[in-house]
Structures are given as structure tokens and as C-alpha cells.
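Render this sequence as a predicted structure.
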Amino acid sequence: ILNVTRGEEGTIERADGVEIGPVELKMLSLVIPDGPADDHDAVFGNPEPQAIGARWPIDATAAARQLERRRLQIDPTQLEGEMHVASRVEEPVPALEVTAQIVAQGIQFPDTPEGATVTRGDVVVARVAYLPLDLSQHPIVQSSEMEMEVDMSLTDPDSGEAGRLEIRINLSRSSIQLPL
């Protein structure tokens, strides 16, 4: 576990209590976005109260902007997703079970080295959160699963040698925060 401290602008300043230099920041920012926090409401929210069973699309344009902070580019028309208020639970506190499904195709990587071309960049994300009705409380449970498939063709600009790279990533993450 790495504890990151951010400054007023959201930039990473310390990791595990140690100041971060420019080289470390560049390496760390490959996996942790630097800058202001993501605006989840812009991507997943809905301005109107929703009933149990309600579904609505995510804001693909807002999602694409947030992916750019993670050095991923996608045309918003290639990104779709849906939110769903699945149920209401009463224990340990009254909460709503909210799910999200996101599918993105054609993701590109702007930092791709010279001679590399992304031929496939697909991501599927499934997320579940139990959100207390008391908005002052944090989500009780959050879990997400992500599958990413990236194929690249590579040509060495000096030697002309060609190759292919296939990357398959499956990530699962969950957290539980019991109310006080």
C-alpha cells in the first residue's frame, strides 16, 4: 500500500511521507493520475432523483476527459456505459446498491513509443457500490473489476525489426468501510 499526499491543486507531493522528485513523479503518474481528483458525479451522476430499478447512461464525454488524465485517449462515441440503482438494503445502514457497466473500444495511448501502433485497445469495467442514504457517510462497500486487452504492432525505427505485443489485464478491487 502506497500512501500519497496531494497538494492544493491535487498534484502528488509525497509518497509514504517522502517528497517526490520529478523523475519519481513521472513514474508514479503512470499508475496514479496527477492533478485534480476525478469528478465521478460528472461521469456517473444524474441530476434527478432515481427510483430503485432506474437506469441511465454515463456521460461518455466526461469519462473520455478523465481517461485523458490517465494518458488514455478515446473517442467518446466508442465509450458507453450504464448506471443502475439495483436495490435498497437496510443493514448495516440504509443504502442503495448502485452498479455501473462501462465498455470502451479503440483506446489509444498518446505516450506510445515511435514505431508502435495500437491495433486494439478495449476495456470493460463493472462496478458495484453500496451508497448510504445518509450522504455524510462514505460508501459501505465498493468493488470493481476491469478487463483490458491491448494489441500493438511494433517496428524498431532503427533496425526495421517488427513484432507484436499482446497485453491482457484483469484487475479486481474491493473495499469495505463500516459506518461508525
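Summary. The chain is about 10% helix and 45% strand. Residues 60-69 form the longest helix (10 residues).
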